[in-house]
Amino acid sequence: MKDILLASAAIAGLLLPGCSGSTDQSGMIDFSAARQVTIDSTAIDCVLNPAAMAVVDNKLVVANFRSDSIADTFTLPELKHAGSGGVTGNGPGELHNAFAMTMTPYGDNCVCFSNGRGLEVMDVNTFKAIDGITVTMPEGWQLVQSIVPIGKDDYLVQRGNGSLEWAIISREGEIRHSIEPMLPEAFASMKLDDFSTLAVRAGWSTVSPDGKSFAIAYRAFPTIEIYDNDCRLKKSVTAEFTVGERPELWVLAIRSTAKRVYVNLHNPADKAMTESHIVALDWDGSVKGVYAVPMAVGPFAVDDNDSRLYFYPAGDHDSIYSFAL
Length: 325
Known about the structure:
Helix content: under 10%
Oligomer: single chain
Distance between the termini: 46 Å
Radius of gyration: 19 Å
Shape: globular
Strand order of the largest sheet: 1-14-15-16-17-2
Strand content: 35-45%
Number of strands: 28
């Protein structure tokens, strides 16, 4: 099998046998109805280089781009630093080639990272790698944009080359379901080169803990799609947006809990990065809340009770902020 490369970092730097849903399964995100949040908890002097965040085993896990260790943990809700670890290497318990920005919760007390050919699983209490999962990609998939586990046997994958379709595949590379690729009408009249086309179609994804639903949020425009595990569209939700001369980054991160999907939206017209909106949806695609945050939110996570959101401001590596949902 050829090595599969991860295309996520390149796309972020710029900024679907298919199943489909009818266009009447749509809704709108109303930013004017957003609740202004009050940031009421802060942990300072957390000198990290954050790439992703998750809540696991009642700990906040921060994956970072540091070379000495890939993860830090903090107690909740106190936000006290609990430990650091996750060494990259080829020895026992070491992570061989984990991409920090792909971290997602995995089973009990664990997170997993994509390595471009599968997943590496790390225990958040010991920071030791405990499993390596190789996923065979379908024929012709030289690049992979993302890999998110669905339970222990299936994976939600976005192809990083060609048509950039999304697919649910088995560990052996069998495509169980897929989503036809699409190009939004707002970009249809633009003359996009291959890389810009890739940027427009690329997205973040998250899977419900029970594996019955998943969500896709496209990076270059504020559209969120909710699907069941047969790739049938439940609902598509979007906000009004305009496009410039080239694709820009709208969606900065996506996270989910058993009840909710959370998407971090930042209007690229806000060049000073003074505000972000966190959109909360249920797994049927109904908007349950829009939160206006008075700064640009970077990596974030939500506790299992959907009561509190934790985040790093974009460009700030020294503090963790929190507010009640």
